[in-house]
Amino acid sequence: MDKTPRREFLKTSALALAGTAFLPTTIQDLAKPVRHLGVQLYSVRGDMAKDPIATLETIAGMGYREVEAYGYADGKMFGMPIAEYMKVLKNNGLAMPSSHCNFSLSDYDEGSKSLSDRAKRAIDDAVKMGQKYIIFPWVTEPERKEVVKLVNLAAAGAAYAKSAGIRFGYHNHDFEFIQRGPDGRLLMEWLLHEIDPKIMAFEMDIYWVCYARHNPLDWFRIYPGRWELCHAKDLAKTEKRETVEFGDGAIDFPNIFRQSQLAGLQHYIIELEHYLTTPLEGVKRARQNFVKMPW
Fold first, then answer.
1. Distance, CA of 265 to CA of 210 (rounded, Å)
2. How far is CA 25 from CA 21, 63, 253, 257, 286, in A?
3. In whole angstroms, what is the distance from residue 76 CA to residue 86 CA?
4. 24 is a domain residue
């Protein structure tokens, strides 16, 4: 086993990203077939805002059988009561193993070390919807500086979720692999180290890891089994390095997904933030590329 200190390994792996995760490779069979392929509905947010029912019907028509939602608010999803929303999913043969739900430092009381009623209700409603995961997806820029408080919030959310019968997860962007806490560790290291892995899962957004010039494979090796979900969107071969449909960019996903078993990956979720055509056409093409990829 490589005895290089972990921090030095991460430092050198970040520099070596361009020579590792992006290189072409001979594709062999993956260790495990993909059972759970879904789409993050934020990819088609404009369509969901206009007509969520018709959009979900279209998504199902593309062959998707799972979705990951966003935008929960006050007991509703996309403006629909939970029961009504779940009926729409069922009518279209769609399951929802996970959803994104915003949390903030105002949802955690340092004195009592407890979550706000709003946060508890969001987690409880996720359980009612039959989800396996509720995902903490985003941290505002001011709150990123409060590293210890942020970790305490996530730990409290994870503990409450466990007691409610659901798994709490964290979804990354690029800043977790750039910003450092008070002791010099990356924010992502704080989250990985300071919260019990038995109660906290991670959803690796592979695009953002690569955008931050880190190698996803390095993180799989150092923290095996921690990455139960992933967002699969590609990185454009342009100066801006924007998102592009899965399979049409610079990321060598077969090489990364060959290590799915090591990573602990169970759920693969297509996402797209920028569009060459339309959002719906984009997620359709991304799914087609994913399915055609030699495993």
1. 17
2. 10, 28, 10, 12, 20
3. 10
4. no
Q: What is the CATH number of the domain that holds 285?
A: 3.20.20.150
H-assigned helices in the chain: 6-15, 45-50, 52-61, 82-91, 117-128, 141-144, 147-164, 187-194, 206-211, 216-222, 253-257, 260-263, 279-292
Cα 232 from chain centroid? Answer: 9
Q: 10 lies in a domain?
A: no
Model's pTM, two decimal places? 0.89
pLDDT of res. 34 = 75
Query: Does any domain span residue 222?
Result: yes
Q: Are 213 and 16 in contact (CB under 8 A)?
A: no
Give the separation between CA 235 and CA 215, rounded to whole angstroms. Answer: 13
> What does the alpha-carbon distance between residue 140 and residue 160 come to, in Å, rounded to a whole number?
22
* Segment among 32-46, 182-196, 275-289 with least mean pLDDT: 32-46
Cβ atoms within 10 A of the Cβ of 61, count? 10
Structural domain boundaries, residue 257: 36-292
Q: What integer best gives the mean pLDDT of the chain?
A: 91
pLDDT digits (tens, 9 = 90+) for 177-236: 999 999 999 999 999 999 999 999 999 999 999 999 999 999 999 999 999 999 999 999
Exposed/middle/buried for residue 277 (C-beta within 10 Å: 0-12, 13-18, 19+): exposed
pLDDT tens for 251-266 read: 999 999 999 999 999 9
Task: Please state the domain count of the chain.
Answer: 1
Residue at 90 is within a domain: yes
